[in-house]
Design goal:
The structure holds two protein chains of two kinds.
Chain A: E1 2-11, E2 14-24, E3 29-34, H1 40-47, E4 55-60, E5 63-64, H2 70-75, E6 78-80, H3 93-99, H4 102-107, H5 119-131, H6 147-161, E7 165-169, H7 180-192, E8 196-200, H8 204-210, E9 213-218, E10 221-226, H9 228-233, H10 235-242, H11 244-250
Parallel strand pairs in A: 3-8, 3-9, 6-7, 7-8
Antiparallel strand pairs in A: 1-2, 1-4, 4-5, 9-10
Helix pairs in contact in A: 3-6, 5-6, 10-11
Chain B: H1 3-31, H2 39-54, H3 72-94, H4 99-119, H5 121-124, E1 130-131, H6 146-170, H7 172-182, H8 184-189, H9 194-220, E2 222-223, H10 230-243, H11 248-263, H12 272-280, H13 282-296, H14 317-324
Antiparallel strand pairs in B: 1-2
Helix pairs in contact in B: 1-6, 1-9, 1-10, 1-11, 2-3, 2-4, 2-9, 3-9, 6-7, 6-9, 7-9, 10-11, 11-13
The chains are: A alpha/beta, B mainly alpha.
Transmembrane segments (chain B): 6-27, 34-53, 73-95, 116-133, 145-165, 201-219, 234-262, 274-294
Membrane topology (chain B): Multi-pass membrane protein
GO molecular function (chain B): branched-chain amino acid transmembrane transporter activity
């Protein structure tokens, strides 16, 4: 599905991504954990084409996407989200959905393509919005939504786009703890429909609960990989999260 | 026919031309987020292209070498094509820049183009310009009634421009343009290539401005470089802001309101000596109107509104909402 091999990216003297290789298997939920500044979001930006790697290669479904334009990568079926889900503020919730629809994707390049949105597209968008509790707010500007609603709209947009690989940057951040389990079950349900996931989050419980496989990053490098149980038991990961001295103190 | 009526016809005609420019600017700068300070470039290029193609050969006191006396439709086509090509060229260069950097380069290009009109006299007859141009259907009606015919042509032109632009704004093309304006990074993840998309909007706006240039030649029967200074750009921006940036109706109405404000001082009865002073107050009136609008109606007289889509409610929509609320 997604194959990142030996990717490197430096900002001045800082090696933000330092020889990173990782794989996302088809139909899997793969997690990426690490402390702040470990390079997770930078790696997201490299994979989605927002930043160009200095070295290494990225393949997606047997295609080399290393130096591709980010909008081209998106068209291949990789959808990434951002840490702040502001959406398109001065567009309605429904417009936010339509921008990600297949209908718009196929017709946006010409200023003369038909303006009418077919009923099927509106119905599909409405059904997704209803599922996320946003249907009643479909004609409201996104800037007038509450933070939790914006978060829901982010998932709704992702569902509308129908990606092959969904890259979620901190999906659980800002989500009511009581709703995190429902978020996890939504992710699993989508996986069962054939969507693969690569997600970054700081909520270890959530990541371990939802992911099949986890990669741990520190200082731009992958320091551990494996199943959730293997990774959280890893010595280097423990040191990273609890601290070396703290751990020896505990012993 | 009374003088006042003639004056009114003339004002509404000018308003229609400004409204066309407003609609074009609103497409790229209101719906799209381009800070374009060079809209006058394509207005001027359209006007000159039309004149070069349709004007009669130069008389002895004039210097330009072209003058094909081609029919009006050929002139209009030439104007739109020339404006589109220049917009493509200038846009491909300047759209690598964003915001204020884009703004300053487009302003500079507009000035470069005006200097070309001034200096390339073999093409444009220089500062003197080309005059005595015959607007279309001039012989069809009595000269005293021609103002009405021209007004009808301008209003018809404006209606077509408005409808075409409206279509673009509400189509997936316009929605994507707005998406880039609102959140470029997110728009990219939807598969939109911002620069290419903005370039299309820039070329469309340039083409419409070029057409407006043709109408401006009909209105004036003369073309000179002085008509295409950056004042026009700022006037059109003011008109769009007064009308409501991003709003189609605002752009349409803004052009007329601007011309009304600009020429309202003509009604002030003053002595001959004071006339020049009063005339110079015109821009002050516009400035005052702009300040008042920005203070009390910052989104313009007709603010951009939410686009509402119809369609049946999905089954169980209500239940899910109350559940989630």
């Amino acid at each position: 599905m997604l194959d990142v091999s030996s990717c490197k990216l430096s900002f001045g003297g800082v090696k933000a991504v330092d020889d990173v290789s990782l794989r996302v298997e088809p139909g899997s939920i793969t997690g990426l954990i690490g402390t702040n500044g470990a390079g997770k979001t930078t790696l997201f930006n490299v994979i989605s084409g927002f930043l160009k790697a200095d070295a290494g290669s990225i393949r997606f479904m047997d295609r080399d996407i290393t130096a591709r334009d980010p909008s081209e990568i998106a068209k291949l079926g990789i959808l990434r989200t951002f840490q702040t889900p502001v959406g398109f503020p001065r567009m309605t919730v429904m417009e936010n959905m339509l921008v990600f629809s297949r209908h718009d994707r196929d017709r946006r390049s010409s200023p003369f393509s038909p303006a009418r949105v077919p009923a099927e597209t509106l119905e599909a968008a409405s059904a997704i919005l209803a599922d996320f509790g946003l249907y009643q707010k479909r004609d409201v500007w996104a800037e007038d939504l509450s933070a939790p609603d914006l978060k829901m709209l982010e998932f709704a947009r992702a569902m509308m786009a129908g990606p092959v690989l969904l890259m979620l940057d901190e999906p659980a951040a800002g989500v009511n703890p009581a709703l995190i389990e429902s978020l996890a079950s939504r992710i699993r349900a989508l996986r069962d429909q054939g969507v693969s996931f690569l997600l970054v989050d700081h909520n270890l419980k959530f990541v371990c609960n939802v992911c099949d496989r986890i990669f741990a990053m520190a200082d731009g490098r992958i320091i551990a990989e494996g199943t959730p149980d293997e990774v959280i038991a890893d010595q280097k990961v423990l040191e990273l999260y609890i601290g070396k001295s703290a751990k020896t103190d505990l012993q | 026919m009374s003088g006042l009526l003639l004056f009114l016809v003339s004002m509404v005609s000018l308003g229609a031309i400004y409204a066309m420019l407003c609609v074009a600017l609103n497409l790229e700068s209101g719906v799209g987020g381009l800070w374009d300070l060079g809209i006058v470039s394509f207005f001027g290029i359209g006007a000159y292209a039309y004149v070069i193609v349709t004007a009669p050969p130069a008389a002895s006191y004039q210097a330009y070498i072209f003058g094909f006396e081609a029919p009006v439709w050929a002139g209009m086509a030439a104007a739109m094509i020339a404006a589109a090509l220049f917009a493509l060229l200038i846009g491909a260069l300047t759209l690598r820049l964003k915001r204020e950097y884009f703004l300053i380069t487009t302003l500079a290009f507009a000035e470069v183009i005006r200097q070309i009109f001034v200096n390339e006299a073999w093409l444009t007859n220089g500062v003197a310009g080309i005059y005595g141009l015959r607007p279309p259907l001039r012989e069809a009606v009595d000269p005293s009634a021609y103002g009405f015919l021209l007004l009808a042509l301008l209003v018809a032109g404006l209606a077509i421009v408005f409808l075409v632009t409206r279509h673009m704004v509400i189509s997936p093309f316009g929605r994507s343009l707005k998406a880039v304006r609102e959140n470029e990074a997110l728009a990219i993840t939807a598969g939109i290539a911002p620069r290419r998309h903005n370039l299309k909007a820039y070329v469309v706006a340039g083409t419409i401005s070029g057409l407006a240039g043709v109408f401006y030649v009909w209105y004036n029967t003369i073309v000179t470089p002085g008509q295409y200074s950056s004042d026009v750009t700022f006037f059109v921006w003011t008109a769009v802001i007064i009308g409501g940036l991003g709003s189609l109706r605002g752009a349409l109405v803004g052009g007329f309101i601007f011309v009304l404000l600009h020429d309202i001082l003509r009604f002030v009865p003053v002595s001959g000596e004071a006339a020049a002073t009063v005339a110079s107050l015109r821009t002050a009136v516009i400035g005052l109107a702009l300040i008042l609008i920005l203070r009390w109606r910052p989104n313009g007289l007709f603010p951009e509104r939410a686009t509402v889509f119809g369609g049946a409610a999905p089954a169980g929509a209500k239940a899910m909402v109350s559940h989630n609320a």
